[in-house]
Amino acid sequence: MVYLGFLFASSSNQSTTHHVQPDLTTLYPPKKRVARQPNPPSVPVPMEIVMTILESAYEGNSMPAYSALLQNCSLVCKSWSFVSQKLLFRNVSLKSQTAAIAFQQAVDRATPRGRQLGDAVVRMKVVLDQNQPYRLSHRSFARAVSLCPNLYELSVALYGEGGPGFDVIGSPDAARMKRSAPSFDERTLSILRAGPRISALQFCNWSDNSSSLLQLLDVWPSLSSLDISGTTPRLERDNAEPFPCALRELRTNFQMSPSVEFMRWLLHNSVGSLRVLDLAREPTPDMLEYLLSEHSATLESLALPTCGTHEAAAAVRGCAALRELKIEGAWASPMLYKTLPGELQHLAFGVDGDTALQPVIQAIKKSSDLRAVTMHVWHGGNKHPQLADVRIACARNGVRLTETKDVLAFRAVTRGDPVPTARYPRTRSFDNLLYMASCAATTL
C-alpha cells in the first residue's frame, strides 16, 4: 500500500525567517539618465492685457462682486497688486473711523504710491452715524475727501443719535428722522472747500438736522447732479440767495414734499440746464405744475411714482424734448401714452393685474426712436392678459424689453451714472468712470 501520509501532514504555524545581508561592496550599474526637456522661459502677461480684462469685468449694478474680484486679483502677484488696487480705489466706502484711518494711510500724498491711489478715487461713499461707537468723525470725513483730487461723485448718509434704549433697528422713518445730529463746524467746511470740486452729490439725511444739506450745498458751487432724500429740507431765512449751481439732473425722495419756495430757490439757476428730473415721492399738484412749467422745454428724462390724473398727464405731455419717461406705479392715465414725443428712447412703467396696457402697446408700435422698454411686474401683473402683446410689440419693433419683479431692481436698471448723455436709458459703465476721472482732472 502506497504511503499517502504526506498529503495530510499538518503544516507548521510558524513562518520561516530568512536573514538577508546586503553586500555594500557590490557595484551596480548606474541607471540610465532620462533626458529632460528644458522648461520654456516664462513670459509675463502684459499689464495692458491685464488691465483690459479687469476693466471688461466691470459691472456697475453689482459693485460688491466686482470689488471682491479686484481684491482676489490683487493677491495674484506683485505686478497685479497695484493694477487691481488702482481699480479698487475708484470706488471707496468709509463707514467708521478705523476705515478712515486706514484709507488716509493708503493715500498718503507724501508717497508716490499714495498719490497714485488717491488720484484714482472717483467715487466715495461716507456714512456719518452718531449711533456707532467707532463712528466716522466730521473732520476725518473732510480729510478723506481732501486727499482725493479727482473725486467726482460723493455720497453722504447722515444718521442722528438715538437716546439710550431708543436705537431700535427697523424703527419707522418718522422716528428715525427725529434724532439729533450735529452740524458741520467751520474747520470741517474749510477743509471741504479746499478739496476737490465734485460734480455729483448724494445726501441722505436721517436726522432732524436740516441745515447740513445747506452747508454742503454752499461748499460746492460746481455741482451738476444732486440726489437728496430723507428729511425734508427748509430754508433758514426767506431772503436767502438762490442756489448758484446750474443743475443738469435732480432726484428727490423726501418723506414729505418740500415747499415750492424751496424748489424755486434750489432750481433758480437751473432754468435751461435741467435735463433729468426724478421724483421718487408723489409731488403736490402745485409742485408738479411749477417743475414742468419751468423746465419742460429742456427736460429729457422724467421719472414719477404715478401719473393718474388728467392734469398730470397733460403737464407731462408738455415736455416735448423727452427721451425717457419712467412711471414706477402700475396706474397711469391712458391719455399719457397717446401723444408721446417722437424722440422717446426709453419707456419704463409698472404693471399689475388692472393696468391699461393697450395705450402702451399702441405707443410702442408708433414710436420710431424707441429702443428700450422696462416693465416692473407686480401685484398679479404676470397674469395680465395683454402682457404677451407687449412682448410681441417690442420684438416686432426691435425694442429691447427688460422685465423686473423687484422695485429696487427696477430703479437700478433705469438709473445710470450721473454723466451727460444723449442716449437713454443711462447705464453704469467703465467708460463713465473714465469720463468722471477726466472731467475731475480738468477742473483742478
Detailed description of the structure:
It is a single chain. Helix 2 packs antiparallel against helix 3, helix 6 runs parallel beside helix 8 and helix 11 packs parallel to helix 12. With 444 residues, the chain is an alpha/beta fold. The chain is globular. It has a twelve-stranded parallel β-sheet, with helices on both faces. The mean pLDDT is 86. The longest helix is centred in the last third of the chain and has 13 residues. The N and C termini lie far apart (122 Å). Strand 4, helix 9 and strand 5 form a beta-alpha-beta unit. It has 16 helices and twelve strands.
Offer a few descriptive terms:
alpha/beta, 16 helices, twelve-stranded parallel beta sheet
Question: Which helices and strands appear, and what pairs or packs with what?
Answer:
Blueprint: H1 47-56, H2 63-73, H3 78-88, E1 91-94, H4 97-106, H5 112-120, E2 123-129, H6 138-146, E3 153-159, H7 173-176, H8 186-193, E4 200-206, H9 211-219, E5 225-230, E6 249-254, H10 260-266, E7 276-279, H11 285-295, E8 301-304, H12 310-317, E9 324-327, E10 346-351, H13 358-366, E11 372-377, H14 387-396, E12 400-404, H15 407-414, H16 430-442
Parallel strand pairs: 1-2, 2-3, 3-4, 4-5, 5-6, 6-7, 7-8, 8-9, 9-10, 10-11, 11-12
Helix pairs in contact: 1-3, 2-3, 4-6, 6-8, 11-12, 13-14
